[in-house]
Structures are given as structure tokens and as C-alpha cells.
């Protein structure tokens, strides 16, 4: 369950404001791609266009196309709800549903599509997803407690379990570790390494070390100034991006000589 | 009030600033005043009700037998009103917060607030002059065709001034309170929770069920109780609309309707004298007790159902 993403000449607008301009890149299946760049450069915006979550903000729209194994996500008649069922997302801050138990949180997405699931199938899925998120051993005895009772790092892994429970083709992560301590961060990074066997993963991060540790390819975004659209500056193998980038501003950014 | 005194003596006493002293005095007075007002009302009600509670009454019924139909009418009309108002209010609040385009939403918001500003006597007039004649044919139809349901037992009222009409008026009156509060609560749903459900592929309605309603549950209850408080105590509109006969019946389309405590006091008080005054005040005490009980229950429910934001 892993698909290839192709972004062709993508512009993103919030109303009259052009937030991102002319992004084109290809993301291979079963790989981890990191989006890096200064705040406001549009990397999160691009990430959110991949599962059409940017449309949650009124007035947002895109020009260009994003192909998932050749099928245009922005084609006529494509329902964003179906797009999001194929492309899971993990957010900056852990957001388990506060009124649901751990078990209900994992099943939340699955039960949207398939209400008639037998109890034993549900149990299997909960165990499989929580194991997949490296959380099973920590919570197997207390699946009935509210998800908000876990620590921040555990909550984030619960959110990952919830996202992979629906077996998506792609997993998007929007700074998944920015609210976590270093140990929880390490746990998530290890998990990303494992999830890569099955999913196409795109991760936005502000942490250079994280990008170099987890990703196969890296995309660097930048803006010319406030109010100008963000652009994709360089996209290449992570090792090359961090050792010998071909654009000067990439080198400035990854070596810390730039805001 | 005086709790700060011991701490002040152990430390080297800092000079009190005049502004602090004045503000403390003013706010303490205000706090005490509200308690005094509440106590005053309660003492008045109890003291004036006692003769009716113990004494012989003119129609030698007990006080409780007399007040029961009124209590029933109060609860029944409020219940019917809440049954209509709460779902509609929640639906309007959801429409304003999650479906309507921004401009429509703000216009609708103002319109709802405007409804709250209409005096209840106007609602009463509207109920008598417009709603009752409008509903009357419907009542006749219900009594003829659905008369086997105990709610619609014939004969239907000829004027349309039934308890259902009164309840509809009450529902319109409490709608703005509930809607306005629900709207505020729904707007406070954490964006993260909404996005979490959308990112799982939830439709807008599924998102509302997964994120908005669970988050707003205690707020919905609280706003409903506020609305219920208004419906229980509403006097003028019910007094004008309802043609009451003091019956205890669940029939909502007939002419034999129970009255409500508040409306009954308003209608009877001008010509009351002697023990009847005490009886009316006694019924007021019952209403006071009911509202107190409703508030206590709601506090309890809210405390039980409140969820923290998840962080």
C-alpha cells in the first residue's frame, strides 16, 4: 500500500494571496521525503495540499496538479473526503479525540468507512495498528482509558496508529516531533524508519538533524520576503542536500548561516 | 474578606494602597448584596407561603392538590418547548458555525440575537393573534386523524390556544439563548480535533459528530438548562396565549389545558386577597424550588460530562 506522488507546477492561494508558486517534485513509494525551510516558506502548505487539507481554510485553492499513481487528486469530481481516506496525516501537536478511549481513537477512521466490523476484527486491527506505532506494549492493558491520559509522545504515536489503521497509501507528517521531548522524538523517528517499509512518507520538519536522520530525499523551500510566495529551491538526495547542495541558499540554510 | 489578615501580620505589613482598599470594599459589598437579595426573596416566599401550607383553604383541598396541576402545566409546557427548541437551536448553531458562508452566518447571528430582544408581551400577542389561529386547523386534523395517540385525543380546541401553542411560543423565546450559547461553544472546538477527524476522511457531518458535539456536550446541556429556566419562569406570553382550565392532561391539542405557575400568579394576583395571596405565593415558592433543583441537576451533569481539551 504505497504510492508515488507527482506534483506538477503547483501554485497555492489563500484568497488573493499566493502562498506557494511553481512547485514540481516527484516522491517515490516507500521512501521518506523531508520538507525543510524557514517559517512561512510554504512547506506545510504544500504538505497539506497533498491530502487537500488546506481546503479547510476558507478561500484556499490550488492551481496545478498532484498525481497519486497517475490519478489527479484535483481532477474534476474528486471528493476530498476520499483523498483524505487514502492519504493519512499526523499533526504538529498530538490530537487524539479527548472524549474517546485509546481503542476508540484507533478505530475512529476505520469505523467511518466500515461500520459493520466484527469485534474480533476490531481487536486485531487495534493491536496491529498500535504495534505498528510501537505503542502496543505500553497501552495494551489500558485500551479503555481516554487517549488524552497518555504522555505527549504516546499521544503522538496513538495519532500515528490512528492514521495507519485505515491503511493509507501515503502518510503526511507536519512537524510531528515539534511538541515532544528528545526521547519521544527518537521513538517517533525510529517508527518512521519502520513505517517506510510500507508507506510513502512526507515529513515537514524544522530540525535539520531530524531531516538528515530520517529522510531519503529532502526538499528545501524558501521565500524571497514577506508577502512573496514560497518556492521550491532545491530537491535532491538527502545526503547530497546536506553535504554538497547545488544552490547557495540551501547550503546557507542547512549549515545554519541563515534564519 | 478577612482571610488575608494573618498573612499580613506575619510579614512586615506593606502599606495598603487606597485604590485596592476601595475596590475591595466595593466588590465585597456587591458580593454580599446578591446574597442578601437571594436570602430576602427566599425568606419572603417561605414566610408568606406558610399560612397556605398549614392553614385551612377556602375550597378545603390541600395546598398540594391545588398546586399540582399548576406544577404539572409548568413542567409539561417547558418540556414540550425544550423538545422543540433544543434540536433546532443546535442545528442553527451548527449551521452558523460550520456550514454557512461567513456573511450569511453573521447576519443570521444578529437575527438570532434580535429574537432575544423582543419583549415577551409581544410574543404573547403574536401567539394569540397569529400562531393560535394558524395552528387551529392542524390541531383539528391531528385530533381527527391521530386521535388514538394520547397526545391528540379529541376534541380539538376551537381557538388554538392550547398548551402546544404556548409551548411553541416558549420554544421561540428560548431559542435565541440556546443558539447563542451553543454557537459560542461550537466555535471553541479545538481546531486540532476538527482537523484530526477531517484528515481521517470524515465528512463535515462526521467531523461534527466526532469532534464538535463531544466537545460541546456540557455546553449544550448548560445552555439548554438556561433556556429551560426561562421557559419555566415565563409569565406574560403563557398567560396571554394559554386558555387554561387547570386540568392535568397530556393532551396537547384540546381546550382543557393545565395552567402554569407563573401565568397563574400573574392572572390571579390582582384580585386575590386573604389566604389566596398566600396560596399564590406558595406556588411561587414551588416554582423557586423547581428552578433551584433544575440548576443543581445541570451543575451536576456539567461537572460529570466536562472533558478537558485533551492536553
Quick gist of this model?
Chain A is built from ten helices and ten strands. Chain A has 259 residues and is an alpha/beta fold. Chain B is an all-alpha fold.
- Individual helix count of chain B: 11
- Order of neighbouring strands in the sheet with most strands of chain A: 5-4-1-2-10-9-3-8-7-6
Oligomer: heterodimer
Written as H for each helix and E for each strand, in order along the chain, the element string of chain B is: HHHHHHHHHHH
Put simply, the count of helices of chain A is 10
Helicity range of the residues of chain B?
over 70%
Question: What structural category do the secondary elements of chain B indicate?
Answer: mainly alpha
Explain the overall architecture.
The complex is a heterodimer of chains A (259) and B (311). A ten-stranded mixed sheet of chain A has the order 5-4-1-2-10-9-3-8-7-6, with helices on both faces. Chain A is 36% helix and 25% strand. The mean pLDDT of chain A is 88. Chain A is globular, with a radius of gyration of 18 Å. In chain A, a hairpin with a 6-residue loop joins β9 and β10. With 259 residues, chain A is an alpha/beta fold. Chain A contains ten helices and ten strands. In chain B, α5 crosses α6 (163-187). The longest helix of chain B has 37 residues, at 18-54. Chain B is flat and about 65 Å long. With 311 residues, chain B is an all-alpha fold. Helix content of chain B is 74%, strand content 0%. The relative contact order of chain B is 0.14. The two termini of chain B are 35 Å apart. Chain A binds chain B through residues 51, 53, 56, 58, 81-82, 84-85, 88-89, 91, 93, 95-100, 108-109, 112-113, 146-148, 159, 162-163, 166, and chain B through 102, 190, 192-203, 206, 210-211, 214-215, 217, 307-311.
Amino acid at each position: 500500500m504505497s504510492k508515488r506522488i507527482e506534483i506538477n507546477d503547483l501554485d497555492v492561494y489563500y484568497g488573493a494571496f499566493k502562498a506557494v508558486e511553481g512547485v514540481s517534485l516527484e516522491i517515490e513509494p516507500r521512501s521518506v521525503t523531508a520538507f525543510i525551510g524557514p517559517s512561512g516558506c510554504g512547506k506545510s502548505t504544500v504538505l497539506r495540499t497533498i491530502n487537500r487539507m488546506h481546503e479547510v481554510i476558507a478561500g484556499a485553492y490550488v492551481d496545478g496538479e498532484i498525481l497519486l499513481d497517475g490519478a489527479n487528486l484535483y481532477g474534476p469530481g474528486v471528493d476530498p473526503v476520499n483523498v483524505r481516506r487514502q492519504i493519512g496525516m499526523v499533526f504538529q501537536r498530538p490530537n487524539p479525540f479527548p472524549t474517546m478511549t485509546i481503542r476508540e481513537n484507533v478505530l475512529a477512521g476505520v469505523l467511518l468507512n466500515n461500520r459493520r466490523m466484527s469485534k474480533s476484527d476490531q481487536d486485531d486491527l487495534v493491536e496491529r495498528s498500535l504495534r505498528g506505532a510501537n505503542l502496543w506494549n505500553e497501552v495494551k492493558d489500558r485500551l479503555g482509558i481516554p487517549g488524552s491520559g497518555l504522555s505527549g509522545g504516546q499521544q503522538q504515536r496513538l495519532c500515528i496508529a490512528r492514521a495507519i489503521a485505515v491503511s493509507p497509501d501515503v502518510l503526511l507528517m507536519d512537524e510531528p516531533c515539534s511538541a515532544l521531548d528528545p526521547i519521544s522524538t527518537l521513538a517517533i523517528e525510529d517508527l518512521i524508519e519502520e513505517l517506510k517499509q510500507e508507506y510513502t512518507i512526507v515529513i515537514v520538519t524544522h530540525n535539520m538533524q531530524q531531516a538528515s536522520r530520517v529522510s531519503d530525499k529532502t526538499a528545501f523551500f524558501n521565500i524571497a520576503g514577506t508577502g512573496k510566495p514560497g518556492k521550491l529551491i532545491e530537491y535532491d538526495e538527502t545526503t547530497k542536500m546536506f553535504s554538497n547542495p547545488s544552490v547557495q541558499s540551501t547550503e546557507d540554510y542547512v549549515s545554519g548561516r541563515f534564519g | 474578606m478577612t482571610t488575608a489578615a494573618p498573612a499580613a501580620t506575619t510579614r512586615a505589613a506593606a502599606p495598603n494602597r487606597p485604590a485596592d482598599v476601595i475596590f475591595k470594599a466595593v466588590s465585597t459589598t456587591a458580593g454580599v448584596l446578591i446574597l442578601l437579595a437571594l436570602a430576602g426573596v427566599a425568606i419572603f416566599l417561605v414566610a408568606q407561603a406558610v399560612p397556605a401550607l398549614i392553614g385551612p383553604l377556602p375550597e378545603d383541598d390541600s395546598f398540594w392538590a391545588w398546586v399540582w396541576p399548576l406544577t404539572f402545566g409548568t413542567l409539561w409546557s417547558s418540556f414540550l418547548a425544550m423538545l422543540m427548541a433544543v434540536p433546532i437551536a443546535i442545528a442553527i448553531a451548527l449551521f452558523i458555525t460550520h456550514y454557512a458562508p461567513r456573511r450569511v452566518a453573521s447576519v443570521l447571528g444578529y437575527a438570532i440575537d434580535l429574537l432575544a430582544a423582543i419583549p415577551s408581551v409581544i410574543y404573547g400577542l403574536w401567539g394569540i393573534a397569529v400562531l393560535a389561529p394558524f395552528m387551529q386547523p392542524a390541531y383539528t386534523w391531528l385530533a381527527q386523524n391521530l386521535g388514538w395517540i394520547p397526545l391528540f385525543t379529541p376534541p380539538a380546541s376551537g381557538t388554538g390556544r392550547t398548551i402546544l401553542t404556548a409551548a411553541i411560543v416558549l420554544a421561540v423565546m428560548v431559542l435565541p439563548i440556546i443558539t447563542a450559547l451553543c454557537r459560542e461553544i461550537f466555535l471553541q472546538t479545538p481546531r486540532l480535533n476538527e482537523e484530526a477527524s477531517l484528515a481521517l476522511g470524515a465528512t463535515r457531518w462526521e467531523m461534527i459528530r466526532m469532534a464538535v458535539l463531544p466537545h460541546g456536550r456540557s455546553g449544550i446541556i448548560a445552555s439548554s438548562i438556561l433556556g429551560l429556566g426561562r421557559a419555566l419562569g415565563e409569565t406574560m406570553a403563557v398567560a396571554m396565549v394559554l386558555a387554561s382550565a387547570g386540568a392535568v392532561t397530556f393532551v396537547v391539542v384540546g381546550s382543557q389545558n393545565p395552567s402554569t405557575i407563573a401565568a397563574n400568579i400573574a392572572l390571579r394576583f390582582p384580585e386575590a386577597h386573604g389566604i389566596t395571596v398566600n396560596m399564590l405565593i406558595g406556588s411561587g415558592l414551588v416554582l423557586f424550588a423547581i428552578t433551584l433543583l433544575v440548576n443543581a441537576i445541570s451543575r451536576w451533569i456539567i461537572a460529570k460530562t466536562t472533558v478537558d481539551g485533551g492536553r
